[in-house]
Design brief:
Elements (H helix, E strand, L loop, with lengths): L2 E6 L4 H11 L7 E7 L3 E7 L2 H8 L9 E7 L14 E2 L5 E6 L5 H10 L9 H16 L3 H11 L4 E7 L2 E10 L4 E4 L4 E4 L11 E4 L4 E6 L2 E6 L4 E2 L4 E2 L15 H7 L1 H9 L3 E2 L4 E2 L8 H5 L3 E6 L2 H17 L3 E5 H4 L10 E7 L5 H12 L3 E6 L5 H5 L2 E4 L12 H21 L4 H22 L2 H11 L4 E6 L4 H15 L2 E6 L16 E5 L6 H13 L3 E7 L4 H5 L2 E5 L8 H18 L25 H15 L1
Parallel strand pairs: 18-19, 18-20, 20-21, 21-22, 23-24, 23-25, 25-26, 26-27
Antiparallel strand pairs: 1-4, 1-10, 2-3, 2-4, 5-6, 6-7, 7-8, 8-12, 9-10, 9-11, 11-15, 12-13, 13-14, 16-17
Helix pairs in contact: 3-4, 4-5, 7-13, 7-14, 9-13, 9-16, 14-19, 15-19, 15-20, 16-19
């Protein structure tokens, strides 16, 4: 995932590009670059972040231009360095390209171009593509637009590209397949970006480029054709995104802001859909296909990462209430198999961005086998909603932090509402239970807020365990996917090795790892598995493991057993994941911050000079933290 921004119009392009790249750094941040047309086609790029490296590098350059392209990179082909950063020149340096995606047949194309005398500067597939386009243009004596079209006919893989040319000083050429690209429509100006975040400051009117479409953009005109040379009419959408939603608003990190937004985002995912007093639950996007879902013989849920975990929660809910067999698949695995899809099967695809490449490919495979596809997405107008038969938006708002938080709770909320709708239509739940679930759902935002109000307690617990080398997260039933999600969050942003397991499976291997230096997080709320998980806690204590337990309020038994407890309000068992995941998000966040990690931009920007304290910090701190927690609880 990388970030693209481009501009042509009457403004100075550089400030637009720079601000846009800063807003897109959540998509990639190991290198960045821009290209401007001013007395030639000039490319400036550097390894590192936009703020700092690139900004300093261009400080003394002539940046005056009303057209330009910019890119912030998450490395795929070639290590992060100045040479592999985008934009890339063509062989004769008449063209420059920025590219998201992966060209799968780049190696064969590159070898053919080398045989023709081309010399490559970088290790990237993107440079191969712009060389290839230039080669076609020169050898076929055709226009650049036609060369792009011909080249893309031969390209295998995914791409979102924007090209500038010395010979077309006011024109951008853009195209996409499997990677998002949105065009902002202004007055005598156009913007191009991976998503709306760099555009919203200037215009609310956008055109979403579809797969296999090529756009030719000047400051006064936008024209779009397919790669089959068929003219299409751009459809202008109005963005609902507010500029305030993509700012930190006083929070230290976007991740923390988004964790604290969950009372609102969960409420927004239910707004207009649920009325417990009236016994009403309606998902308008499902209305036309509700009978299809109700009569489904099997549901297959597809997702990646956090969305896959949300799908696992949905598996429990659908099977419990709607009595439909459910399988949850990694989209990245499903797409490369020859899966069995039978008549009457329904596929639910989950994606925060609506642009997840593996999920899109899995959808196309399932559609080719005759499945009806439902989408659960956050980004309005994105590719997955357009590729599915029906679905529901989560309305969580933009998620800028790389580690997904509010998307998970919004997805689980929408999937739970879907399952309840189907169960009501099928008659597989009683009216009493139906009303109880609606009432309980409406209480979720306030209960999340109650947990967030105790964030200082979780911060103190994080101080004790910030120097841990390994974590184990254990849960049963509805809370097993929460254990997986908690482990994912911790390792993703703090670089601590963490594993999520079904608590009962601990004795089948992981128990061998438990000793006095192993923190074990139990999601141990009062539910149908409570007695069993108490036994699992005893097993960990017998091996001197350090127990952190997420428990239901007023739980006295586990309070006496665990070293630390984090309380969550009582709620219906099926809705527990919406609450129990919140402490784990905060625990991961605070541990990562205390370790000096870049929370919003993990994986590349590690702070390797971590605390020089002993492996487990100061053990005496455990007693100090306990005393502090007691005082906080008394308040």
């Amino acid at each position: 995932m990388c970030g693209i921004v481009a501009y042509t119009g009457y403004r100075e392009a550089y400030p637009v590009l720079l601000k846009g790249l800063k807003r897109l750094e959540y998509r990639g941040y190991d290198s960045a670059g821009i290209a401007l047309l001013n007395n030639g086609l000039n490319v400036y790029k550097k390894k590192g972040k936009v703020t700092g490296e690139l900004e300093v590098f261009v400080k003394d350059k002539n940046l005056s231009s009303t057209i330009g392209i910019g890119h912030t990179r998450w490395a795929t082909h070639g290590e992060p360095n100045d040479v592999n950063a985008h934009p890339h020149y063509s062989f004769n340096e008449n063209l420059a390209i920025i590219h998201n995606g992966i060209i799968e047949n780049y190696s064969a194309l590159k070898q053919d171009l080398i045989n023709k005398g081309h010399v490559f500067r970088s290790e990237t597939d993107s440079e191969v593509l712009i060389h290839f386009i230039e080669d076609i243009k020169e050898n076929s004596n055709c226009s650049l637009e036609e060369a792009v079209r011909l080249a893309l006919h031969q390209v295998v893989g995914a791409y979102a590209i924007v090209i500038m040319s010395k010979d077309h000083p006011d024109t951008l050429f853009a195209a996409r397949k499997g990677s998002p690209l949105v065009i902002g429509v202004g007055k005598n100006e156009y913007f191009v970006a991976s998503d709306a975040t760099p555009i919203i400051e200037y215009t609310n009117d956008v055109v979403y480029l579809d797969d296999y479409e090529i756009a030719v953009i000047t400051k006064n005109k936008l024209s779009i054709k397919t790669i089959e040379d068929v003219v299409t009419t751009p459809y202008i959408h109005t963005l609902e995104l507010e500029l305030e939603a993509i700012e930190k608003n006083g929070f230290e990190h976007f991740m923390l802001k988004e964790i604290f937004e969950q009372p609102k985002s969960v409420h927004d995912s239910m707004r207009g859909r649920i009325n417990a007093d009236g016994g009403r639950l309606v998902l308008g996007g499902l209305r036309e296909y509700l009978n299809t879902l109700t009569n489904a013989k099997r549901v297959v849920i597809l997702g990646c990462g956090t969305s896959w975990h949300a799908g696992l929660v949905a598996e429990y809910v659908f099977e419990e209430f709607a009595r439909i067999p459910v399988e949850v698949e990694y989209a990245s695995e499903f797409r490369y198999r020859n899966p069995i899809i039978n008549e009457g099967d329904v596929v639910i695809a989950i994606s925060q961005s609506g642009e997840t490449a593996d999920t899109l490919a899995a959808i196309e495979l399932a559609k080719s086998k005759g499945a009806i596809i439902f989408g659960v997405c956050n980004a309005v107008g994105s590719s997955i909603p357009r590729a599915t038969h029906a679905g529901a938006y989560t309305h969580a708002g933009p998620e800028i932090g790389v580690a997904s938080t509010k998307a998970f709770t919004a997805q689980v909320t929408v999937l739970t509402m879907m399952a309840i709708c189907v169960a009501k239509a099928k008659g597989t739940i009683t009216e009493t239970l139906y009303h109880e679930l609606l009432v309980e759902l409406e209480t979720v935002p306030a209960k999340i807020q109650k947990i967030l109000d105790k964030h200082n307690q979780i911060h103190y617990i994080s101080e004790v365990f910030k120097d841990a080398h390994n974590f184990l997260f254990l849960g049963r039933g509805y809370n097993f996917p929460v254990a997986l999600e908690g482990a994912l969050k911790l390792k993703e942003i703090s670089y601590i090795h963490a594993e999520g397991y079904p608590a009962a499976e601990m004795k089948h291997g992981p128990i061998a790892l438990i000793d006095e230096e192993m923190p074990v997080v139990f999601i141990a709320t009062k539910d149908s598995s409570y007695e069993k998980i108490v036994s699992n806690i005893q097993e960990v204590r017998a091996r001197k493991g350090r127990v952190i337990a997420v428990v239901t309020e007023k739980d006295e038994l586990i309070q006496r057993m665990a070293e630390f407890v984090i309380e969550v309000p009582h709620i219906h068992e099926a809705l527990t994941p919406l609450l129990s995941v919140i402490p784990l998000q905060l625990l991961s966040y605070y541990i990562a911050v205390l370790r000096g990690c870049n929370v919003d931009q993990p994986a590349t920007w590690r702070n390797l000079s971590l605390s020089s304290s002993p492996r487990w910090g100061t053990l005496i701190g455990s007693e100090r933290i306990k005393n502090k927690l007691k005082s906080l609880n008394r308040r």
